[in-house]
Each structure stands twice: as C-alpha cells, then as structure tokens.
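QUALITY CONTROL LOG
STEP: pairwise intake check
CHECKER ROLE: data steward
CRITERIA: each record must contain a sequence immediately followed by its structure tokens, with no blank fields

ENTRY 1 OF 2
RESULT FIELD BELOW
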Amino acid sequence: MKQDGTGSATADADARGSVFVDRARTAPGTYLVILAFVYVTMSLFQKPIGGVAMGLAFLQVLCLIDNVALWRLAALSEVQRRNKKQEDGQDGQDGQDGHDKHDNGNADCNAAADGAAGLDLTGVYFEHLVLLLLCGQRAFFSTGHQNALPSIQYEVGFIGLDGVNWILSPMFIGINTYGGPILFALAVPLVPLWGAWPQPRSARTASSVSVSVTAGESGPSGPSGPEARRLAARIAREVGQAMLVYHGLISGAEVTGVTVFVGWFRRHSQAWRVWGPKYIFYFVGHSGIFALGIVMLGVVHQCLA
C-alpha cells in the first residue's frame, strides 16, 4: 500500500511536469495566435487603406520577432561552440560515439536549455523594443491619423450600430485611432518569447511529436525537469523586463519629452493647436496601452507558471 502511494505520487509529479513543459513550450505560438486575433479585430475598425497598413504592420511584427530569434540562435550556437571546445580540451576523447540517438538528442536539448538560460541579449532586446515603438508611431500615422482632433474618424463609432452607443462607440473610435500602437505594444512579450524554447533536431523535423516527458528526464519535445523550469523562469523574467523597459523607460521617455515641450512652449501662439492635442493623444494612448500590456503580461506568466 505504501509503495502504491509512492508510485501514485511519482506519477502525479511526472504528469505535472509533462503539462508544465507542454504549456511552456507552446506559449510563444499561443501568444502569436492571440496577437493575430487582435490584429484581425482591429483591422475591422479601420478604413480600407488603414486595413492594408495594419496588415503591413503585422508583417513588421513577424519580421522583428523572427530577427530576434535569429540573433538568439546565433548567440546560442556561439556559446555551445565555446563550451564544446572547453569540454573537448578537459575531458579528451569520450568512449561513447552515440549508440542511442534519442539520448543524444535529449542531452543536446538540455545543453541548449542550459546555454539559453545563460544568454544575455539585453542590447538586442532594447534595440527591437525601440523599433517596435517607432513602428507603432508609424502605424498611427499610416492609418490616417494625426495628433489633432479633426483627424479622429468619428464615423467608425457607428459600425454595426443603429445609433450612438456611449460604451461601444468610444471603444470603436479608440480601437481605430490607436490600433497601430496597440498592435506593436502587445507584440512586446514576443521579443523574448519567440524562439526561446530549444528543441532537439529530431523534434524540429518531425511532423508530430509525442509529449511524454517526465519531471526528471528529457523527451523529444524539448528540455524538462530542472532545465525546463530554469529556462521558463528566465523567459518569464525577460518578458517582465521587456514590458518594464518598453512601458516604463521608452514610452515614459516619449511622454516626458512631450510634456517638457508643452511646458516650454506654453506661451507660444500655436501651443494649444500643436502641443496641446499632441500631449492629449500621447497621454491617452500610452495610458490605455499600458493597461492592455498588464493584462497580456498576466496571460504570458500564466502560460509559463
């Protein structure tokens, strides 16, 4: 009876480890699907040319996150190459040439997880976060908007409605106005997420991979056990740091700059025609995007918890 209880507890731990690995491994793809759904929804509230601009914006997001994944892959390959040289110099020649291909793939995947957990891509992340903010501002103007009240497309507030709805109409107008910046701001978690979960070579080419990974050993779906939890903790920490840098540092610097110029030109004849509306648009946009960013950050951490 005691042995059965121990075996049941071990089976439960193995099942929890398998579910954790499966959920963490699919977090980037799940978040990309959510972002695609957001893109399609916001495109419904754009004018025809605005919808084309939103499509190009989504392609820009895909290119940027894929570029970060390529940087990570190059850095990881360099780390693994240096580690292999050090191991060859210390250990010399090993007696096993690889009788078990599956075990070699698992060891390679766990080594990749250890190397990925030690990567420092802070500079690459910061550059691409700045690019996301600049692309978001470009999307704001390319969808036909300006930092002026006459540029607000009020007719969007009547889509699917017989008259004015004081809840839905302002929501539709806000989605139409800030659709581009919202799309790029919600793509911030994908910068550290995309391509961060290494897989063995056999899993990269297989069309279907069975996820039977226990809590203490590696399987064909990627690292597991302590390696998986350490890598997931590192990814969750990088996602939080990326959100903090984007909303707290980069966006905050932009809003601070606009505030300084509004105060500096307060006596200018064009103060309330140029800088006043610009300040209002920036403040409202960044506040709403920050609130949405907190929600999406909770979604990502739920996947990696």
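ENTRY 2 OF 2
RESULT FIELD BELOW
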Amino acid sequence: MAPLPLGTVPHPTDAYNVTALLTAAKLVIVGLKPTPKTWYRRHRDEDDEQMGKGKFRAALAWFPSVVPPGAPPPAAARTNPAPAKKDGAATTPVLVYSWGSTLRLLLVSELKTLEKFTSQRTGKVTMVEVGRLVFEEKARWNARDIVHAIQWLNAKQILAVTASALEVYDVQTRALVEHVHFDPTLLLSPSIGHTINGAFSYSDATSDVAHSVRTYKGKIFLLGRDELQVGTLLTWADRILSFVESGDFLSAIDLTRSYYLGTAPGNKNGLPEDPLELRKVVGEKMRELMVASTRYAFSEDRMTDGTHLTPDGRGVDRTSLFENLVATCARACIALGDLEFLFEDLFQAYDDASIAPIYLEQFETFVLEHDVRAVDPRIAQRLIALHSANGSPGRAERVIWHIDPACLDIDQVV
C-alpha cells in the first residue's frame, strides 16, 4: 500500500487523498476524500503458468507533482492551488508498479464535468462542476529479471531492484540506462522470521525486500542485514573526471565527444535538457580537455609522474600517446565543426617538439577518409613535402586528390 505524497507544487489530485493497494493479483486505487471511493481497479492478466517465479512478486511507487529542474517556477504557492492548474511546467502524478518482471506506468489526473443537480427541497435544477479521477496507462515494458522493489530516483528515472541487479530505467524511452549486478538476498527482509514456522519459504522471504530500498534526492539507500549502503548515479562530469584523475585524458575526450553526439552509454544526469544548451556545455568541456591533454603530453611533469618508467629502467615508448592524441583531437574537432585547435595549437606543439611527422601521419588518415577536406595550407604543404622527402610520390599524389584545391600550393603540387 502506498499513498500519493504531496509534491512540491499543488495538483488537483491532492484533494482526493489517493492511495494505491497492490497485491500479486490486483491493483486497486482508492480516494479517501471527500468520501472513500474506489477509483481504479485492475486485475493481473497473466496466467499462473506464465508467471513462473514472479507469481507472488509485486511492487509499486508514486511520484508526485513537481516542477522539473530548469523549468519555470510554479504559478502559485500551495496555499493557492487554483492557478497551479494552468501551470504546464508541473509534472502529472504517476504510479509505477510491477508484477513479476513487467513494469507499468499509470498517470492520474482530475477531470471536471458539469452535472445537473436537483434540489430535493425546492426542486430547482442547477449545473454543478463535479470532479473525478481519470487514469491513463502510459507505458509498459519488461525488466531483465523479476522485480523485487521499485523507487523513483527523479521525475525521469526509476530504480528497480531485480533478482540479480540494480537497474535504472528512463521512463520516457523505457530504456535501461544503468545496470549493476546486485544480490537482493543481502537486504533485510521483514518476513525472514516467519520461515521458522513455515509461513514463508526461505526464497520468498529473502525476496521481500521492498521496505529495505529507499531513494531521497537522487541517492539510493539499501538496508542490509548488517550494514546500510548509500549510493548515487554518476553524472556525466563524474565519469569524465574518473578518466582525468587516472591520467587517461584521451578516454575523457572520447567520452565527452560521445555525450556531445548523444551516443554516450548510461545516464545523462547533470546535462541540460535543451539540445543546443547541451552541446554548448559539453563542447566547452571538450575544448578544455583537448588543451589540458596537449599541455600534459608535452609537459616536463609527465617525465616525472612515472608513466614512462618500467621495472627494468629501460623506459616506455610513448609514441602511441602522441599518435592517439592527434586522432582523438581530430575526431573531437570534427564533431565540434571547428578545426582551429587541430590546425593551430596542436600542430604547433608537435612542430615545436620536432615530431611533426607523427602529427602528419595521423592526420593524413582523416584526409583520405574524407573527414577533413579543407586543410590548413601550411599543413597541406608539410604533408605533401613529407611524402616527397620520403620518396613516396604516390602517397603525395593521393593526398593531393583528397584536399580541396583552394588549400594547395600550386607550385608545390606541380
């Protein structure tokens, strides 16, 4: 059983004191005000043969009406609920519930209609506005395993504790955004004591863990038999920072680029909802990382941080670091649509260190694959001259065919 809690903004459903009751076979939603009434009833439609181990498993959780982060402030405070009905920024109260491995979303709202009311004393007929609760089945999808407990992390993400893992789902896309292996039998079960007299089997008792899972302000609280675990989802910045702290700047740039392109795995917590604002924020971070990576790769500090040492004292060939730096920054600049850093700062760093051939060899790949056609004339000259000096006129000619003629030195090409 779970009552619909009050949200941060008023909602018409607050006046009904809505409560949901869920068993392994039926969902019932009642309103306690103005008079007790059953507003919604749904029976589980699976056959016993299809239920399997999830036959007796059910879980539910409400999410109230709130204003999502970044949305405009509510039109009125809770002391004046009437204007809030016009406030489109607030979310609609929603119930997530599960039977077995199947999860469902149920929206609840109020619908007002005009009804005729006849006075028993005077016989006068008047039109009265009457409200009633309406429910909308919003979505349905299956988890990877039987769901033992459900909690809302925020207005867009659900935490599901299954028989084998902790899973986080995006309620808009129903996509699994996080999956961590977890054994729910380690959580405290209020039914474990009833296994002594045979009222519950041990497997059923250890699955009764819904009361040991809670969320609050994005944090996850798990009550174990001898410990309390607290965790939270890593934001996009946390993931990038983990690579930076370990010195893996190139992986940090690649991950940032995937956030910029919208292909990053996992959740996108901490990022703006607006696509243009997201690209602005992530793009700035990607530029900062490219600058920091270049400074680190060519700094004297790197010679003393142990990354070039081996047990035998012979040292490590760091050629791959400089090769991958060019490729990683090239992919990032192409994604940004801005090659200035690639052609100016990065090339100058390689040229000053007298390893420009490493840069040119790596950059050539992007030219031949048609990723970059408008090449800085200075770099085009150096690339063609490199192949000419190495006695490879065929490679020089191939590069010429792939570069915009406006970027070529005609005298050098002839």
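INTAKE CHECK: passed for both entries
DESCRIPTIVE NOTE, ENTRY 2: The CA atoms of residues 171 and 349 lie 47 Å apart.
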